[in-house]
Amino acid sequence: MKQSKLFAKLPEYISTPDGMTIDSDGNLILACPNYADQTLPGCIVKITPDGDISKWIDVPVHSETGLASPMGIAFGPDGDLYVCDNQGWPGHEHLKFKGRILRLRIADNEVVKCTEVARNMEHPNGMRIRDGYIYVTQSSLEKVEDPSGKLVSCVYRFALDDEGIDITNTLEDKNILATFITYDPDCQYGVDGIEFDKQGNLYVGNFGDGAVYRLTFNQDGSVRENAVWAQNAEELVSTDGMIMDEEGNLYIADFSANAIVKVTPDAKVSRLAQSPDSDGLNGELDQPGEPIIWNGKLIASCFDLVTGGKHRNTAHEMPATLAMIGLKED
Fold first, then answer.
1. Domain spans of the chain?
2. Using CA atoms, how far apart are residues 312 and 330, in angstroms rounded to an integer?
3. Percentage of the chain surpassing pLDDT 70?
4. What pLDDT does residue 329 have?
5. 243 near 261, Cβ under 8 Å?
6. What is the CATH code of the structural domain delimited by 14-245?
7. Which of 89-98, 135-144, 243-252 has the lowest mean pLDDT?
């Protein structure tokens, strides 16, 4: 296996890093929900190819909660930044259905326009944009009762220009693209990571089951098939964020196992790198939440917050970190 290295120790205004994307100038853009210290504003950070780190913006807060908790992020074709504001992640009941999808127009390091695409979401998490639509994983639909008694989660699909959609977090929501059930009784946490391949197939990670689903589509955009594509309990424990390279290899942040896992185009699953429990300051994978490929390297944000159960992580430490893995053959 490969060994991860330290990419960056993050500034003190970041306690929890998460989602990432790349802007049109080649900068790495990092979402920081800061769940470990919610006195810190949820913010978006810019990292230049030279390694300079600066706060780009604070995400506009919810008018009722006074919080913003950005997780999945993606740029639209016009340069607006779309954000999963996952208000309810820490488990506070009064925040559970306050999640939002935001569209931010940013100029001169300021938000000059904030559009609420969707509101009242239970658990918006990962995001991708393709062909005029926003695809969002929602890791929990507690209002939906499946006969199995297991957790239901889903993927929502919104048009880029949608505004003010009231989400009910039930199967009545017309924007639900597909639903999923998490079968592992010890980890009832639903879909999380999300990615497209070059052919337009959608890959979705079911966190609790450590399974990757592949969705194929009909010409009208409806789902033709939604089925498990890759799963290997020995190599892949949990599926958080994911990214695909030009050759069709899928890299997954195995949040629970402190690992990065590679899935080849033929669905072969293997662990690429793994770390013991640590503070991440020497470049260890300290509960990786999101991977991205940037300038030939895989960068992983270290969430470093959740403990107990099957998670290797035992404590949160500061400073927050990003880890790095070289992808070229040694």
1. 14-245
2. 28
3. 99
4. 66
5. no
6. 2.120.10.30
7. 89-98
